[in-house]
Amino acid sequence: MTSLKKKVMHSKFVRSVFSALSYDRDLFYFYLNPKRSAELNFTSIYNRKINWENPRHIEEKFHWMQFNTDTSLWTRCADKYAVRDYVIEHGCGNILNKLYGRWDDARDIDFDKLPDKFVIKTNNASGTVIIVENKNALNINKTVKKLNYWLRRRYGIIGGQIHYLKIKPCIIAEEYLSDPSQDGLNDYKCFCFKGEVDSIKVCSNRVIPSASYENHEYSNTIYSTSWERLDASIQTKIVDIPKPLSLSEMIGACRALGEGIPFVRIDFYEVCGKLYFGEMTFTPGLENETFEFGLHLGGKLHLEELKTVR
Q1: β-strand 187-193 against 118-122: which pairing, if any?
Q2: Residue 189: pLDDT above 80?
Q3: Bridge-based pairing state of the strands 99-103 and 171-175
Q4: Between helices 291-298 and 58-68, what is the axis angle to 10°?
Q5: Residue 283 has pLDDT above 90, yes or no
Q6: Which one of 58, 67, 76, 232 is most buried, by most CB atoms within 10 A?
Q7: CA–CA distance, 296 with 192 (Å, rounded to integer)
Q8: Read out DSSP for 92-106?
Q9: Which H/E stretch holds residue 264?
């Protein structure tokens, strides 16, 4: 890719236009047929249609589950605010980070009461996060507009993720986490089947434009629970990550939080050896992993065991 092309593709304006056009396209297909919206998203990544009659890839299977099973727990636990109570109920409240506040409208936020460093985000989407490392440098008017724009945007339309549309949107501010031993926090994403961890994806070396997670870049490495690197990432730049000190606690938390759930990805952070809960995701994208890895995960999810809802 030429330097000019790189500049164009990384242009904030180009990204925003592309995002708007993609959203409008998904909006059209969603109201035409939510299944078509899900299939469009899948096809754009894998260049093949979803096999609704005999799904094999993990993304095919959780798309199937969206339209054939009860996903009310998905709605509760994908909600970045409501999931906090779920984590407490399952005995893992000690791994939650501090919550500074919750608001239905960004105009109600009293930024003077927030600490100098914090993370602020919406509860009902992916990537709608702003990292504030210096409150004095924060453009509050711009931040308020962005947060309220995110609240209005119906994230679940993308890929036909209906459970996100049932979340009551809000804004939350949480503790800013940092570890001097890491270049940005490593994000440990555990692929869980009924609470048992199959493998762990580690996102590291994040490059976050404008302190927002939208369109950010990162290195992607996948490990077994015994911390053997798996040949599952399609990225050419692979970074070896040391085994986290809290790995056993992480796996234990997955057993508690994922018990009885056919499939969920549970995310964590580690700060100086202490484990922190991140989020629970039921429809994670695997565009940075090999198709074979998706088939491997799909083989762990047995749809015939699920109760269908018509």
Answers
A1: unpaired
A2: yes
A3: antiparallel
A4: 50
A5: yes
A6: 58
A7: 13
A8: -GGGPPPEEEEESSG
A9: strand 264-271
The answer to whether the beta carbons of residues 153 and 26 sit under 8 Å apart is no
Give the mean pLDDT of the chain. 88
What pLDDT is stored for residue 34 in this prediction?
Answer: 82
Q: What is the CATH code of the structural domain delimited by 3-302?
A: 3.30.470.20
Quote the tokens at residue 11: 């242009």
Q: Which residues pair with 119 in a beta bridge?
A: 131, 174
Helices 12-32/34-46 angle, 10° precision: 140
Structure-token pair, residue 157: 């339309």
Residue 136 three-state SS = helix
Predicted TM-score (pTM) of the model is 0.88
Calculate the alpha carbon distances from 72 to 67, 92, 163, 249, 306 in Å: 12, 21, 7, 27, 14
- Distance separating alpha carbons of residues 36 and 29, to the nearest angstrom: 6
Counting every residue written for the chain, the total comes to 310
How high is the pLDDT of residue 227?
98
- pLDDT at residue 25, as a whole number: 66
Please say whether the beta carbons of 220 and 231 come within 8 A: no
SS3 category, 115: coil
Residue 210 confidence (pLDDT) above 80: no
Q: How far is CA 244 from CA 185, 188, 228, 309, in A?
A: 12, 9, 13, 40
- Flag whether pLDDT at 191 surpasses 60: yes
What single letter denotes the amino acid at residue 272?
C
pLDDT tens digits, one per residue of 20-68: 545 666 677 777 788 888 998 899 899 999 999 999 999 999 999 999 9
Q: Is the dihedral of CA 177, 183, 184, 186 positive or negative?
A: negative
CA–CA gap between residue 193 and residue 199 (Å, rounded): 10
In this structure, what are the phi and psi dihedrals at residue 200, rounded to the nearest 5 degrees?
A: -130, 125
